[in-house]
Amino acid sequence: MAGDALNHASMTLTEQLPILQVLVPFVAAPLIVFIGSRALAWPIAFASSVASFVIASLLLGQVINGDVISYHIGGWAPPLGIEYRVDATNAFVLLLISGISSVVLPFARASLSVELPPRKHTLFYALFTLCLTGLLGVVITGDAFNVFVFLEISSLSTYVLIAQGASRDKRALSSAYNYLIMGTIGATFFVIGIGFLYMTTGTLNMADLAVRLEGQGNNRTVQAAFAFIVVGIGLKAAIYPLHFWLPNAYTFAPSVVTAFLAATATKMAIYVLLRFMFTVFQPAFVDGGITLEVIILPFAIMAMFAASLSAIFQRDLKRMLAYSSVAQIGYMLLGITFLSETGLMATIVHLFNHGITKAALFMGVGCYVMQAGGGFYSQLSGAGKTMPWTSAAVVVAALSLVGIPGTAGFISKWLLIEAALDRGWWFVALLVVASSLLAVIYVWRLIEALYLGQPAEGATTQEVPLGMLVPLWIMAGACVYFGFDTDITLSASRSAAQGLLSGSVAVH
Amino acid sequence: MDLMTAEFILGHLNYWLFIVLMMTGLYIVIAKGNLVKKIVGLNIFQASVFMLYISVGKISGGTAPIFPLDMKIDPEVVYSNPLPHVLILTAIVVGIATTSLGLALIVRIREEFDTIEEDQIEEIEQEMALAEIARHDAQSAGQA
Amino acid sequence: MRHHLILRVITKMLVGTIFLFALYVQFHGDYSPGGGFQAGVIMASGFIIYGLIFSLEKLQLVFPPWLVHKLLALGVLLYAGTGIYSLLGGYAYLDYTALSPHHPEHGQHLGILIVEAGVGITVTGVMVAIYYAFAARTPIINDEEW
Q: Per the CB 3.0–4.6 Å rule, which of A287, A397, C91, C135 could disulfide with C98?
């Protein structure tokens, strides 16, 4: 870098896109605090979110054919410098995260007026953009330790965001605390894993790690690193036996926060898992061990059933959806265990489809909290008549959750079953169908409450304002749209899956 | 054989200490019911990882990795690896943020629940959940 | 703490020295151990000891909470702003060459100085903000109940 000042070629805006992706929300957060104006907080947050959505779409457009963009921070070339590395996999996740935040923020404006005292709004938006920064940063960076830093940026802001539910229910505090303990243990495990990798290889750049780890499958330090990383990220992703923080955190957080986190935070963790399993450790290493078939597969299946069963017996819609999230993470893990292109496609597509589905559903819960005072089925009784538009959107999203043909959820489950049959695991395919039937039951309970119940006498429940209805319907519409037009999702996930499976990182 | 065992134990001293410290911290987090003690445990746990990193960066006989002002670097001088220190500086900052956030949450929990013992908090939560369920069941029964 | 004459006198003497030492660590960070993180914490400890001895109210007259909040945001903006300046010059983010294109080494010096200043300001702000957040809570336990 030094010394090339004379023949320096200016970087164009397009070349700067990877850093702008993170920088825009990162600058927005302190700006909101610095200006300190409640009127300006939301516009700044929204503008930065939309800007990063636009950047993510541009990036995805550049890499959807399998290209890789590498950006060197400070002009220091990798493996010494920190590298931002965009390929089809993470551009797709970037698009999901920034898209969800751009839709959720308009919803937040109306929803927060009920769920949070006004004096906290300014800092709320600052934290929200900070959380967005963290999530985007984890996904875009190509440096293993940088992942940890961004992970903690997003986690710390998440803990605070969840604790904001305390103005409605004090249990938000204890669930935020529990999440803090679990999340910190997870992140520290992750750092231990990175430390072991650094000890073995002397590098932190993921692409460089991959090259140096080749043929190290029997090295015990590397195996320990793999275990630490998988468990650490597993805590963040709420992989089945590590999910205990999730239901409470999602239930007591403000609805906007839940909608945003459910759609992005666990998805980000799944992405990190994919990235480490396939790019850093390479498919051969993962395939050689027993991790997939003996550990991840049973837990994935247990998640699909145990969490779905828990969901059936909930009385609170928000908690039911939280348990269903744990079950859906099981599907994503299942896709990984097939170790095939279709399986990984299923994982990545499901990551996206489930993200938009859950965002729609939790926004629906936010509408009910606003008008009916809560998400309990007894409070939702008859809401199909009193809040027809909200309820219709919730039903559309709920059908996508089950995987009814014509919705986004169907596409990913179809891929999953196809991958299971390709691998010859017909029994697993049957289990996927069976667990979907459990989803039918819990979704039916919701529809029953909405449409067959009678509204409480004297209740004055009304439809929510348009500011909430429009974002809700955008997401519900997306659930249907991506059920029919699968060009974007399938082509992006196909090149992502191919990229991951080939383990191709040497392309500099 | 004995020599090898001794070497194995002494040669990996930093790892043994790391394991002891890490397990102590993790044990406190899991076993103690007091929320403040859990944070203390978490700190010990994190500190063990800091130690691990820093001990890895140490090169025997190595000095602080700062070049002299005139940049006349003596090839004889061995420098420690600065990278783990930098990484851990970041991790320490993250740890401080986590600790202060955790303590802040405890202050708020103390104000709302009037206790910082985990089992008492769980009891209160259980009662709240049961009351909630009873209320909504009654309401549903009324509607049906 | 009104009766502790020695503490009060010593604190008055120390606070200035602490600030001076913080600035030394801050600006000497380019060539020796130190830098924004350490300097920020030392600087904040100067404020905090003043608050401990002379009461929170007195400290908040000198360093009001709104100013703390602005400062901690300002530090981050300063850091990010340096990076944005390099972006505008057509360099990579945080490429300090942009600060002095014909003399990259000067750019490095200037860059690290500004960035560390940003870090120092933010760390001071954050540490004092944490102290305020905890100290401003009304104690639940009376002094005699210990």
A: C91
Measured between its terminal Cα atoms, the distance across chain B in Å is: 79
pLDDT at site A508: 37
- pLDDT of A507 above 70: no
Percent of chain A surpassing pLDDT 70 = 96
Residue pair A79/A205 in contact by the 8 Å Cβ criterion: yes
Q: Determine the residue among C79, C85, C93, C110 to mutate to test chain A binding: the one whose Cβ has the most chain A Cβ atoms within 10 Å.
A: C93
- Determine what percent of chain A is predicted with pLDDT higher than 90: 63
Give the pLDDT confidence of A78-101 residue by residue, as tens digits.
888 899 999 888 899 999 999 999
State the nearest Cα–Cα gap between B136 and chain A, in angstroms: 6
Sequence spans of domains, chain C: 5-139
User: How many domains is chain A built from?
Assistant: 1
Nearest chain B residue to C123 by CA: give it: B93
Q: Could you tell me if B33 and B92 lie in one domain?
A: yes
Of C31, C37, C137, the CB nearest to B93: C37
Of C77, C93, C101, the CB nearest to A8: C101
Work out the minimum CA distance from A456 to partner chain B, whole angstroms: 7
The verdict on whether omega for the bond into residue A79 sits within 30 degrees of 0, i.e. cis, is yes
Of A159, A166, A185, the CB nearest to B29: A185
For residues B119 and B89, membership in a common domain is answered with no
What are the structure tokens assigned to B43, written together? Answer: 């700190």
Domain hosting residue B141, numbered range? 115-144
pLDDT at A455 over 80: no
B66/C133 Cβ within 8 A: no
Partner-chain contact A163 B108, CB within 8 Å: yes
**CATH number (domain holding residue B36):** 1.10.287
Query: Is B53 within 8 Å of A197 (Cβ atoms)?
Result: no
Contact between chains at B125 and A174 (C-beta distance less than 8 A): yes
Assigned domain for B9 exists? yes
Summarize pLDDT for B50-102 with one digit per residue, the tens.
Answer: 999 988 888 888 887 777 777 777 778 888 888 888 899 899 999 999 999 99
Average pLDDT, stretch A438-451? Answer: 92
Shared-domain flag, residues B96 and B35: yes
d(CA A150, CA A147): 5
CA-nearest residue to B87 within chain A is: A145
In angstroms, the CA A39 to CA B125 distance is 37
* Helices assigned H by DSSP within A121-170: 121-140, 144-163
Question: Measured between alpha carbons, how far is A340 from A333 in angstroms, rounded to an integer?
Answer: 13
Counted domains in chain B: 2
pLDDT band, residue A6 (cuts 50/70/90)? very low
Residues of B in contact with A152 (CB under 8 A): 94, 97-98
Q: Six-digit token pair at A271?
A: 């992405």
